[in-house]
Amino acid sequence: xxxxxxxxxxxxxxxxxxxxxFAAAHFHQGITGVIAxxxxxxxxxxxxxxxxxxxxxxxIAHGLIDTCAMTALYLGRPGLLFGT
Length: 84
Description:
With 84 residues, the chain is mostly helical. It has one domain (2-80). The chain has helices at residues 2-9, 11-24, 30-50, 56-74. Helix 1 (2-9) packs across helix 2 (11-24) and helix 2 packs antiparallel against helix 3 (30-50). The radius of gyration is 14 Å and the shape is flat.
């Protein structure tokens, strides 16, 4: 989707337009989760574009974030990551 949007709007605008679409797909996480995912989508989009479209750093970051989230759930502190 990013590549198609880039063709229409340019890179920076495409990253900004893609972030809320990506965040909306995480609505099951509640509004706090949507806001956090929106911010991460902006950051990940910027890293992706800046690193010449290399996904490896993003895969590693996503794995670390998921590991922290699962650890928080395991410890019975689901709001630990986002302060809820």
